[in-house]
Fold this sequence. Notes:
Elements: H1 7-23, H2 31-36, E1 40-44, H3 50-66, E2 74-78, H4 86-102, E3 109-114, E4 139-144, H5 145-154, H6 161-179, H7 183-187
Parallel strand pairs: 1-2
Antiparallel strand pairs: 2-4, 3-4
Helix pairs in contact: 3-4
Amino acid sequence: MNTTVTNEAAIAATQLWLERAVIGLNLCPFAKGVHVKGQIRYFVSAAQTPEELLVDVLRELEVLAEAPREKIDTILLIHPHVLTDFLDYNDFLAVVDAALIDVDLAGELQVASMHPRYQFADTEFDDITNYTNRSPYPTLHLIREASIDEAVAAFPEAETIFEKNIETMRKLGHEGWNALGLAEVQRSKK
């Protein structure tokens, strides 16, 4: 765990990953629009425990729910100091989903997951397809359901994004991933 990371460094690494991997490889065809329009809020949590992180998650969910979409359409909540173990992080996602229900935001907002050690079920750790969700730091992506619905409606065959991402990553391989200049950031989080 890197406890000396600054907020600025965490945001800069996340933005670089977003630009080179998520947008650059078109892993999420919806990301470029909100990035170009400056509608992504980057929030770095200082939380050291899952309980402290949940407080930040609830606060940021409220920020997103109350903000006009043209100002904040999505939030990347980066938490470099807690849930650095992927299995602990993965378990925490159920807590976040329950919190969405508790605060009556389920159906309005949802949370997607990214982590430096992300691993899909039934894959080996170093399987290149895991890198579609490997961010520089543990990150919770807070998303408006209305934005997802609009993006999916505008994107033909949105249900094929996952398969296209797998194909992209397999063609890219580890060598191509390393060429993006993100591998050192990923390696330092192991």
